[in-house]
Amino acid sequence: MTLRNGKEFLMIPGPTNVPDEVLRAMHRPAVDIYEGPLIETTEMCLRGLQKLFRSSGKPYIYAANGHGAWDAALSNTLSRGDKVLVLESGRFALAWGEAAGIPGLQMEVLQGDWRKAVDPDAVAARLRRDDAGDIKAVLVVQVDTASGAWNDIAAIRKAMDAAGHNALLMVDTIASLGCIPFEMDAWGVDVALTGSQKGLMTPPGLSFVIAGPRAVEAHKTADLRTNYMDWTFRDGPEHYQKYCGTPPEHLLFGFRAALEMIEAEGLENVWHRHALLAEATRRAVGAWGQGGALELNILDPLASSNSVTVVRFGGHDPAPLRQFTRETCGVTIGGTIGALSGQGIRIGHMGHVNAVMTLGTLSAIELGLNKTGIPHGRGGVQAALDYLGSAL
Amino acid sequence: MTLRNGKEFLMIPGPTNVPDEVLRAMHRPAVDIYEGPLIETTEMCLRGLQKLFRSSGKPYIYAANGHGAWDAALSNTLSRGDKVLVLESGRFALAWGEAAGIPGLQMEVLQGDWRKAVDPDAVAARLRRDDAGDIKAVLVVQVDTASGAWNDIAAIRKAMDAAGHNALLMVDTIASLGCIPFEMDAWGVDVALTGSQKGLMTPPGLSFVIAGPRAVEAHKTADLRTNYMDWTFRDGPEHYQKYCGTPPEHLLFGFRAALEMIEAEGLENVWHRHALLAEATRRAVGAWGQGGALELNILDPLASSNSVTVVRFGGHDPAPLRQFTRETCGVTIGGTIGALSGQGIRIGHMGHVNAVMTLGTLSAIELGLNKTGIPHGRGGVQAALDYLGSAL
Amino acid sequence: MTLRNGKEFLMIPGPTNVPDEVLRAMHRPAVDIYEGPLIETTEMCLRGLQKLFRSSGKPYIYAANGHGAWDAALSNTLSRGDKVLVLESGRFALAWGEAAGIPGLQMEVLQGDWRKAVDPDAVAARLRRDDAGDIKAVLVVQVDTASGAWNDIAAIRKAMDAAGHNALLMVDTIASLGCIPFEMDAWGVDVALTGSQKGLMTPPGLSFVIAGPRAVEAHKTADLRTNYMDWTFRDGPEHYQKYCGTPPEHLLFGFRAALEMIEAEGLENVWHRHALLAEATRRAVGAWGQGGALELNILDPLASSNSVTVVRFGGHDPAPLRQFTRETCGVTIGGTIGALSGQGIRIGHMGHVNAVMTLGTLSAIELGLNKTGIPHGRGGVQAALDYLGSAL
Amino acid sequence: MTLRNGKEFLMIPGPTNVPDEVLRAMHRPAVDIYEGPLIETTEMCLRGLQKLFRSSGKPYIYAANGHGAWDAALSNTLSRGDKVLVLESGRFALAWGEAAGIPGLQMEVLQGDWRKAVDPDAVAARLRRDDAGDIKAVLVVQVDTASGAWNDIAAIRKAMDAAGHNALLMVDTIASLGCIPFEMDAWGVDVALTGSQKGLMTPPGLSFVIAGPRAVEAHKTADLRTNYMDWTFRDGPEHYQKYCGTPPEHLLFGFRAALEMIEAEGLENVWHRHALLAEATRRAVGAWGQGGALELNILDPLASSNSVTVVRFGGHDPAPLRQFTRETCGVTIGGTIGALSGQGIRIGHMGHVNAVMTLGTLSAIELGLNKTGIPHGRGGVQAALDYLGSAL
Question: Mean pLDDT in runs of 10 for chain D (392 residues)?
């Protein structure tokens, strides 16, 4: 017995539901790469990125996923042997740091806790001890989808300033841009990066890096540069140089359509929508947790991501529930990964997602909790509804 | 403030949400109409219709909407001056009867009640009084989307038989086929018809009529025949004759994809899915009705449609609520029409619709009831959830 | 061995190549039929039809093919027993006349010649003999795709006027509107009709009828009216009445996109494009005919359609050539039909077709003539190229 | 005046015309990256690449363009300071060599001639002088789209063997795979790479690298490795590792559809189709060159690419002609680039291209030569037709 047939929801922390408008914009003939409509599309995308990142920095578009953007950020600004300080709050800053090791960077982890955000004071303390200035860059994710943590980038910048340290601040906003406020220039971020497939509602295959003035300066002496990622080549006068080769046209047409949707809604409205849906989700989990096994992985609301919610299952196997929501309800929710692998679920609420999709998803989970016999408090969906009713 | 951006739901009693698979099947080049893949598609569609109607009768495909199918049913079997008996249970059988008047049929209404299904005993009684056999056909809808009534076609047939009357039984299944059991041959229906855009999940523009043996016989003497609707011409040997001219290719490719989806799910499973979603909807309305203004239009569960639910608002204006669900939540629900115009809402749950869409829709309505201050009992969504939890 | 893989061309006299823009406009969710974007689309389509027909008459949109439009034209203006005069110049006016017979009209054929256009003098002569005014309507096609003839509608109107006859002039422009000049009001046409799938570049399933003042007047007393085709109902105030039921939304969105393309190109430019491509095609056939078997069916250039060219094969079987162009080259060309069945080919050059498609098609035919050993003069493609070179 | 409206052709050396089937395969919802249909698609793509490259080597799929694949080939097999020998035959091997310089490789150019293919004897001679074995890799393109040269990879391998040199042979097949025979294993190629957007008919954004056994061995000591391109990471057990992060799903679904089309046609048939279309193009240019200004850039037929033809304009400005074909005919042809910039045109005939597109394109060029007054011999299209007629 299935109640699946109907619109299916992809409620994982990326890739996310692609709007019809974006898919339709991609369903078109290829065009010349030297002249015509692609040139204007590139301009629109670059300007749109500056608006998204809230920055007057230099944006770069890569035919690559987010891991490619990691390389781009590092290789354009650092040299072999440089040390990067990785601020742990889950899986992804660590992974970025591991990536740094391959071409010859040194990586030091500021150990964190998967149930908490990065502690800015700890950052300041570590940097104060770096008398020699060995640390050339600090790597942090705004949101870690493995833990559901949200890091306070502005506070981390202030901590770096307080420590009087001049490392570059590099921020991965893959799981947050277009969902959660980000203010590159106001916050003093040197390099920020993201991907197309989460808050930006575009199929995966594009990633974006934006360089502030100090990163541009650092680029001049970086010796890790590679041809494909290199900013210098991409700064050249020819259109194809902006992509170091053939532009990924169809993805660009889709991304442009997504930017137009965000523009039409208003970026602040997009942030507010995500905030409401995230809080509704947390309220539901809170209700289920009453006298039951479930618990939010991040307990501090101020450290919780508004784009993804990670739920711990208290030792119960989440696999049957995920199978139920997917096969009986047509709702795909994420499993936990990394250190939390097999211990819970990850509910994505990022990108092209609205209240009824979120409430439908929570309904599927509540049905699934009942069906699979996982002990839980009653009324999760009702709690989410009550919250949204009060917030609207 | 809006929480609309995300997948939008079209929860009206038709047209309904078109699956991606159907839209994709329509996004293709035109093809020759004399040879090639279209020929096989026609065969698949005709065979699929027989399976849907549960009939070995002769199916016809019209480039037309459901009103066109009404004409086709009447004009192929009746003659000027013939009388049809229309069984009222809402708006649509009446409209069909009105349509019959234009080319010169006489129409008599067996008056009904918009809050009840057709009473088979009343049918039998009226037919018994037709000593002269003036009534040549009985027209009835299986579901009337204006009232939300479901008529018991098998019982009506039995009533006709009990009256010993030989009028043709013509059934409009536009709002029910592919949602609710229909057994043309087993129930003794002479002509049945439907459209593409409701339970069959295809864009509007196609309609279907199927003729049983008595209808085929009646066709021989019918003098209302028109060229475009004429079965005789469509029975001809050439492929284009099946459509009396150019086949509506893209819609056919879409319809074929929809048939394949129904086949994959299993028609009985499709019926069961609709039954569960309809009952969940009624449970929600029931909860809202506790101590409040709302009420199901059809109170008898045995007379309620599983494809659409009509809700009365007890004098409260439903327009602000519909605006709220549409503009704030991205959920379009129907307004009431005809004699009920302005008095309530119509919630479609037909075609490509699943539990999470239904629960999301009920959530939007519950939010809207709060927002617009319509008095209602609490816990509608919870009641729907509880029901589905028990049924799954 | 095949050289087929690449863009395929559908060069038949309908349905025609559907532009990407039209298919893309159709790839979208269904919408409400009572409010929202569909209402504006209807307005755009109706206004666009007036521009296409060059008329201030009343346009009607049918979910139906062209045969449905035939019925609509007749049933809305005539009564049982009325006589229609059909002007033969191929297959299609005859078929329209045959259609008229089914609901009870009398049909008289003004016999013509499949190799010539209608002779206006013969029309005048026949009408002068109709002292009793029995003939209520004259039916003619502007282009007959079976013969390739183009009829001079303005001259036929003048002939009717010269005969002092007041029959309605009804013109089928299915194979010409959007390809060849048509001036409904200036020429004094009373009813004109067309379909979506030829010059109008939209998938089949829509047809259009437009009524001038005399047709509107005739409608008042017509007794052939049927519900689905009825203008009176469609003149009603509700949006759904314009379609007598559910509007065929997706086809309408596609048609609107097609109208925008025609508007962007300019209707006169569209006509001119068709004129050049048609003449290029005739030049090619002329060259092939030198000392060979091929011949244009319509020898008089002034009677030749600019939307389709019918070529006689002088006793040679055209089937292997059509198979070659289709299977080896990916070019589908039409076979001849009706009285010319099996005797030649029909080359469509209507709708979304440009010089390179036409020259590619002629190239495929020239290759096919060689391959299949049909005797023909050399240099058909070259002749077409030379003509276009001189005309551009 | 334009004859443009109709199917437009993109006849440049990439990106190429994307088949409807590929675009349709991309028009679908995103899916989970950890389970479900994407896993099988990855398998199909990897196996398909082995078939395309004719190799049992290890294939890698990158979300990147061809320049990214260049980096992947180099960084996975070489170390800082290593020397690569670039075999010049146009622009692209040089560009690859320049790319090698950025991360610290030494580049030596074996100077070539833009009007000739690489001379295997010169390769052998240079390698014989490399007593110290400084040259670690030989870089060559199978086809250079800037010159139109085709290089004989098998002969180059033999030359390397004859010189007794053990450099890796790395071949860029971006402009040839899926168009022209390539036999990685039989010819002894160590690394081959290509992109999605030329012969493989998929939108740009994917590139592919395949490693033979010697490359796999070299990888173990390569110190240029970067995270994103790294084969070791991509060899890991998790599905996402194959893409080093989120797979570019939609492009993969498109690529899979393209592979199925190639499989259906048969790879040898695809090669043969390209051979015929290329020769037809050269015949046309030959005819135009009679007593005129035009000339093939590559005069030796054995050194000519079957995927692109470069034509020199003898001092005449090609810009007006390109504008004419594009704006009047809807055919985009390429301008020459690099050392040939402004001196001629590049006619793409790769990927989803058939005889009628090629003949239509040649027709547009012939019309344009007349229109823009460039002196040329007559009968180019006729020569192409004659050739195809004889070859079919």
Answer: 91 97 97 93 98 98 98 98 98 96 96 97 98 97 98 98 98 98 98 98 98 98 97 97 98 98 98 98 98 94 98 98 97 97 98 98 98 96 98 92
Selection from D370, D390, D391, D372 nearest residue D380 by Cα: D370
Chain C residue with minimal CA distance to D199? C6
Q: For residue B364, which residues of chain A lie inside 8 Å, CB to CB?
A: 355-356, 359
CA distance between the termini of chain A: 36
Nearest-Cα residue of chain C relative to residue B68: C228
Distance of CA C369 to the CA centre of its chain: 28
Residue A55 · residue A185 · CB < 8 Å: yes
Tokens 């996004």, residue located: B27
pLDDT averaged per 10 residues in sequence order, chain A, 392 residues: 91 97 97 93 98 98 98 98 98 96 96 97 98 97 98 98 98 98 98 98 98 98 97 97 98 98 98 98 98 94 98 98 97 97 98 98 98 96 98 92
∠ at Cα A19 (A13, A21), nearest 5°? 155
Let me know if B392 is exposed, middle or buried by CB neighbors in 10 A (0-12, 13-18, 19+). middle
Helix, strand or coil, per DSSP, at residue C204: coil
**Distance from C-alpha of C173 to C-alpha of D91, rounded to nearest angstrom:** 55
Distance from CA of B262 to the nearest CA of A (A): 10
Dist CA C199 CA C177 (whole Å) = 6
Pair type for strands D83-87 and D106-110: parallel
Could A355 and B381 be called an inter-chain contact, meaning their C-beta atoms sit closer than 8 Å?
Answer: no
Neighbouring residues of B373: CB distance < 8 A, sequence distance ≥ 6: none
Strand partners, C348: C308
Question: What one-character-per-residue DSSP string does D71-97 give?
Answer: HHHHHTT--TT-EEEEE-SSSHHHHHH
**C343 and C336 Cβ atoms separated by less than 8 Å:** yes
Domains with residue ranges and CATH for chain B: 9-16+266-391 (3.90.1150.10), 31-263 (3.40.640.10)
**Chain-chain contact of A71 with D228 (C-beta, under 8 angstroms):** yes
What DSSP assignment string belongs to D269-294?
HHHHHHHHHHHHHHHHHHHHHTTSS-
Nearest-10 crossing angle of helices D380-391, D267-289: 150
Are the beta carbons of C250 and B26 separated by less than 8 Å?
A: yes
Determine contact, residues C204/B61, Cβ cutoff 8 Å: no
* DSSP element (H, E) containing A296: strand A295-296
Substitution target from C200, C228, C332, C350 for chain B, most B beta carbons within 10 A:
C228
Testing the interface with C: which of B32, B197, B227, B252 to mutate, by most C Cβ within 10 A? B227
Structure tokens given for C88: 């033969």
Model's pTM, two decimal places? 0.97
The dihedral through the CA atoms of D102, D108, D111, D117 has a sign that is: negative
Give the list of residues 6+ apart from residue B27 with CB closer than 8 angstroms, or none: A27, C23, C24, C26, C27, D20, D24, D27
Interface residue of B27, B31, B250, B352 to substitute, partner D, most D CBs within 10 Å: B27
Q: Does an H or E element contain A179, and which?
A: none
Q: Is B3's CB within 8 Å of A392's CB? A: yes
Does the beta-carbon distance from B352 to A5 stay under 8 Å? yes
Question: Is beta strand D308-312 parallel, antiparallel or unpaired with respect to D344-348?
Answer: antiparallel
Q: Which residue has the tokens 């609490």?
A: B378
Backbone angles phi, psi at C332, to 5 degrees: -95, 120
Nearest to C4 among D7, D354, D370 (CB): D354
Cβ pair A143, A107 in contact under 8 A:
no
What is the distance between the alpha carbons of residues B350 and B148, in angstroms, rounded to a whole number? Answer: 12
